[in-house]
Design goal:
By secondary structure, the chain is an alpha+beta fold. The protein folds into two domains: about 210 residues, D-Maltodextrin-Binding Protein, domain 2 (3-Layer(aba) Sandwich); about 200 residues, Periplasmic binding protein-like II (D-Maltodextrin-Binding Protein, domain 2, 3-Layer(aba) Sandwich). Strand 11 and strand 12 form a beta hairpin. It is globular, with a radius of gyration of 26 Å. It starts with 11 loop residues before the first helix and ends with a helix.
């Protein structure tokens, strides 16, 4: 309808009411999103990160914009998606902390922690802020690699209340925090709906049990004319997740490790059964070695129909928008779904790792580093990171923000956090998993019986724990 032909009747009372509503909305917006100057101990502070979430004001930690200095920030996010995402956070934090200059440096994941430990030991060359492996943070704290941040946290009212509880607990050593939780993750099943349709499976119903995985896998696996694998139905996850999916506790609440368990042995035997269906361990490993990086990785290339990965993998799928190669040579957009990790118990399970932002011991810019950490690990920083990378925020209200909860896949991942367990930390032997890892290449090819291998691994773990006490 054209305004030219619309008759408008003006009512002064209605106009006044509308003006009042607009003013109230503007005031509310300012209250929620604008920096709020306050006075504390003679220092002007400002609220970081604005409002997050649909159900009220969930503000970030208070920042002190008067703090000045330089911050060298080490991370390992060098992919196109993640490098741009971390740079966005740096820019946002520098706007809120105008007197702090942040330089972000991407290091290879395999080198970042050894380089940091070496710099701390030498007394120079360490960054001011580092992305720490959160499950291993207590070990770094015990080894005096990271700075005890409890005095700053106590002073500024920083505690674990905004975070998923396990993410905060993983930063603690002797009840002191050595880092602020940043991203976390949840492991879920990704599946190729195109491939499901191709073989007559319901694309909206992924397997939930190991028995269903076997059934789906038999339909989805295809071989080339020469007998080599063209596609496998299911890429098996790590042994620890499979053990968890079979109801094995592995690490108790008091950090006792029990890998020599019949449920763990049963999980390894099932892993071997799936791999044998492809032609054996060597054939399977050669097939996996032939896969490339995104956008030609396992799922995007169409060579693996189902796999378990962390929720952040969705960002790669969204970024590359891969096409699925049909058998006739044509291509269509890859249609994928997210579901539960298949189990042998009927119970939903998942496991979570993740990272924290820490200050290496010996940093000469601790005050500026602390302000940057409060900003980057606040709800605005974590929500920005989640939108770009699909990594799970450790800040709960950021994870549940309506701007990202609009995606049904994201909703599923957030719901999965309700039954997700943290990667277990064993103080006297943080690398206990390596004893099983060493034997996997013998167990899965059938050179070593699972029960015998796990007994050997248990003995080695117990010996290390005794030695380290």
């Amino acid at each position: 309808m054209s305004l030219k032909h619309t008759r408008i009747t003006y009512r002064p009372a209605a106009i006044l009411l509308s003006m009042l509503m607009v003013i109230l909305v503007l005031l509310q917006a300012c209250g929620d999103n604008a920096a709020t100057p306050t006075v504390s101990s003679g220092t002007t502070t400002t609220t970081a990160a604005g409002t997050v979430g649909a159900t009220g004001a969930t503000h970030g930690f208070k920042l002190n914009p008067n703090v000045s200095g330089t911050v060298q920030f080490w991370h390992f996010w060098s992919s196109p998606v993640r490098r741009n995402a971390i740079r966005r956070i740096v820019v946002v934090c520098q706007q809120q902390l105008p007197n702090i200059k942040v330089t972000e440096v991407a290091k290879p994941f395999g080198d970042i922690y050894t380089a940091n430990a070496a710099a701390v030991a030498a007394g120079s060359g360490m960054p001011d802020v580092i992305v720490e492996d959160r499950p291993q943070l207590p070990k770094a704290a015990a080894n005096n690699i990271e700075t005890d941040l409890q005095q700053f946290a106590t002073r500024d009212g920083v505690d674990g209340s905004p975070f998923w509880p396990f993410t905060w607990n993983q930063t603690l050593y002797n009840d002191h925090t050595y880092g602020i939780p940043f991203e976390t993750d949840v492991q879920v099943l990704f599946w190729n709906k195109n491939a499901f349709k191709e073989v007559g499976l319901d694309p909206e119903k992924p397997p939930k049990t190991w028995a269903e995985v076997e059934h789906y896998n038999a339909k989805l696996t295809r071989k080339n004319p020469d007998g080599s694998l063209a596609r496998i139905g299911f890429r098996t996850p790590g042994w620890e997740l499979l053990a968890l999916a079979n109801g094995a506790p592995i690490v108790s609440q008091d950090a006792k490790v029990s890998v020599n368990d019949s449920k763990v042995a049963e999980a390894l035997a099932w892993d071997k059964k799936i791999i044998d269906s492809y032609g054996g361990y060597k054939v399977y490993q050669n097939f996996l070695a032939s896969l490339a990086a995104p956008p030609q990785d396992a799922l995007m290339s169409g060579k693996v129909a189902m796999l378990v990965d962390v929720n952040g993998y969705a960002s790669q799928l969204n970024f590359y928008r891969p096409q699925y190669p049909n058998p006739d040579g044509s291509k269509v957009n890859l249609d994928w779904g997210v579901g539960d990790v298949p189990t042998n118990t009927g119970q939903q399970i998942s496991e979570s790792g993740g990272f924290a932002l820490s200050i290496p011991r010996g940093s000469r810019n601790v005050d500026a580093a602390w302000e940057f950490i409060k900003c980057a690990a606040g709800p605005q920083g974590q929500l920005s990171w989640a939108r770009d990378t699909y990594a799970m925020p450790s800040w709960i209200s950021a994870a549940k923000d309506p701007t990202i909860m609009a995606d049904p896949n994201w909703q599923y991942m957030v719901n999965a956090m309700s039954y997700t367990k943290a990667f277990p930390f064993v103080p006297d032997y943080s690398n206990w998993k390596e004893q099983v890892d060493k034997l996997i290449d013998k167990i899965l090819p059938g050179q070593l019986d699972p029960a015998t291998g796990l007994q050997q691994a248990q003995q080695a773990i117990d010996a290390e724990i005794v030695k380290n006490k």
